[in-house]
Amino acid sequence: MKSTNFTKHYFLELIISLYLFRLLFPLPFMYFPFPFNSHHFWAAVLFSSFILFYPIAYFSTKLLPFYVFLLVRIVFTPLIWADKFHAAMGALGGALDVQSVITSFFPLFIALLVYNYYVNINNLQGLRRICRRAWFFSFLGIVNMLVILIFYPRAMVDITLSSLLYEGSETVSQFKEIGFLGYGFLNALSSMFPVFIYFIMKIKLKQRQKIGWTIFAIVIWATITRGWTTAFLLFSTIFSIVAVLMKDNYVKDIKRLIIILIFAISIPSSFTAGIFYKASEYFPDSKIGARLYDAGLTIENPNLDYYASTTHAGKRLGRTPMLWKSFLSNPLTGGGMTSEHVAWLDMLSLYGLLGFLPWLYLVYKNFRFNIRFVPQSYSGYYMLCVIAFVAMGFLKNTGGAHVYIFWFLIAPGSAFIYRHNSEEPYVDSVDLIEDMITN
Predict the structure, then answer these.
(1) pLDDT tens, residue by residue, 96-110
(2) Which of 14, 83, 192, 203 gets the highest tally of CB atoms within 10 A of its CB?
(3) What is the mean pLDDT of the chain?
(4) Which regions of 230-348 does DSSP assign to beta strands (E)?
C-alpha cells in the first residue's frame, strides 16, 4: 500500500513536470509527433492523472473561489456576454463562448490545483522540486528567446502584429516551431524580479547559487530589452529597486513607498518628463527608447484621448475613460466593450460586476492564504510580485498560461525552494521518501 502511494505521488510529479516543461521550454516538444507536441495534450494528461490518482484534490475548499468564478463565466457568457460583446465589437472582436472561457482559464486551474495539492498533503519537498524544475525550464526558455531575438530582432513585434491580424498566421507558426514563447512569458517574468532580489541579496545562499540567479535575471532583462517591451522593462526595474530597498518590516516600507509615490506625483511634470527623456538616450534607435521619449511627451503635455492624442501613451491611456463609460452604461452585467489592452478595466467593461467580483474574490482569497502561509521572510517579496501582476493588468492585456502559472504556482511556491529558508525542519532523503509514501 505504501509503495502504491509512493508510485502515485511520483507519477503525478512526473506529469506536472512534463506539463511545465512543455509550457516553459517548448522547443524539444516541437520535434515530437502530435499529440505529444501539444500543450493541451499535456494539460489533459495532468487533469486525468489527478482524477485517477488523487481525485480528492478537486474537492479542496481552496479551489471554491475558482469554481465560483468559472461557473459564473460559463453560465453567463452564452446568456449575456457573448451577444453584448459581438454587438459592441462587431468584426473586430474574436470569439467569446464557453469554449474560449475554458481555453483561457484551464492554465489557472492547473496552477491552483497543483499548488493546493502539495499544500494540502503538506508535501513542501514536492512543491520545492516542482518549482526548481519550473525555474530551470524557464531559464532554458528565456535563453532560447534571447538567441532568437539576436538573430531576428523584430521577432516580438512581428509575432504580436501577426497574432492581432490572424492568430494562425505563418509568422506565428514559424516562431512557435523554434520555441519562441513571446509576450506572455516576458509578462510573467517581468513581475517576478522581487524573487530574484530575494534570492540574490536577502538570504544566505552559496556564492554559485547567487551568481546563477544573477545571470538568470540579467538574461531576462536583456531579452526584455531586445524584445522592445517597454512596460516589462519598467516593471522589472522598478520592482527590483523596491525589493532591494525593502527591509524585514515591509509594512513600513510600503508606507514609505506610498509617500514616495505621492511626492513623485507632486514633482513638476517638466522634471519628470526630463527623466524619461534622459532614460530614452540609453536605448538609441530602439522601440524602448522611442516609447520612453513618448512617455515624457505625454507627461509634459497630457492629452489622454484614444482618437485625438498625438502620442502613443496618450492614446493608450485614453482607453481608460472609454472602458469606464462602457462599464457605467451597465455596471451589473457590463457594456460589452473591450480594448484587449487593459485587462482589469476590460474585464469590468465587458463583464460588469457580475463577472469581475468573482475574479476579485479569487485573487483576494489566494493572496490572503499565501501571505500567511509562506515564510515571513519571503512574504514581502511575494506581495511585491502580486502587486506587480495586478498593476500590469491596469496597463497591459495580462493573463494567459505563463502569467497564471507564475502568479498562482511559482511565485508562492518559490518560498520553499531552499530548505533552510522555508522555516521547516531539515528533511533528509530517507525522511522525504517516507513523507511521500505516508501522504
Answers:
(1) 889 989 999 999 999
(2) 192
(3) 81
(4) none
DSSP 31: G
pLDDT of residue 424: 45
Q: How far apart are CA 63 and CA 365, in angstroms?
A: 10
Q: Per-residue pLDDT tens for 257-296?
A: 666 656 555 555 554 555 555 566 666 666 666 666 665 5
Rounded Cα distance between 15 and 38, Å, is: 14
Distance (Å, whole) CA 385 – CA 379: 10
Distance of alpha carbon 181 from alpha carbon 175, whole angstroms? 8
**Backbone phi, psi, residue 352, to 5°:** 70, -170
Q: Under a CB-based contact definition with an 8 Å cutoff, are residues 229 and 156 in contact?
A: yes
CB 81 within 8 A of CB 333: yes
**Do residues 180 and 171 make contact, with C-beta atoms less than 8 angstroms apart?**
no
Q: What is the pLDDT of residue 280?
A: 61
DSSP tag of 374: S
Query: Does residue 209 come out as left (phi exceeding 0), alpha (psi in the -120 to 50 range) or beta?
Result: alpha
Interatomic CA distance for residues 207 and 192, integer angstroms: 21
Nearby residues of 214 by Cβ (< 8 Å), 6 or more positions away: 196, 200
Residues near 399 by beta carbon (within 8 Å), at least 6 away in sequence? 104, 184, 343, 393
What string of DSSP letters covers 100-153?
HHHHHHHHHHHHHHHHHHHHHTT-HHHHHHHHHHHHHHHHHHHHHHHHHHHH-T
Distance CA 283, CA 278 (A): 10
Interacting residues of 349 by C-beta distance below 8 A, sequence separation 6+? 323, 324, 326, 327, 334, 335, 336, 337, 338
pLDDT given for residue 165 in this prediction: 43
* Amino acid identity, position 125: Q
- The DSSP code sequence of 192-258 is -HHHHHIIIIIS---HHHHHHHHHHHHHHHHHHHHTT-HHHHHHHHHHHHHHHH--S-HHHHHHHHH
The arithmetic mean of pLDDT across residues 17-45, rounded, is 94
Query: For the chain, what percent of residues have pLDDT higher than 90?
Result: 45
Chain CA centroid to CA 102, Å: 18
DSSP 33: P
Q: Which residues contact 408 (CB under 8 A, 6 or more apart)?
A: 108, 111, 112, 115, 366
How far is residue 345's CA from residue 359's CA, in Å, rounded to a whole number?
Answer: 12
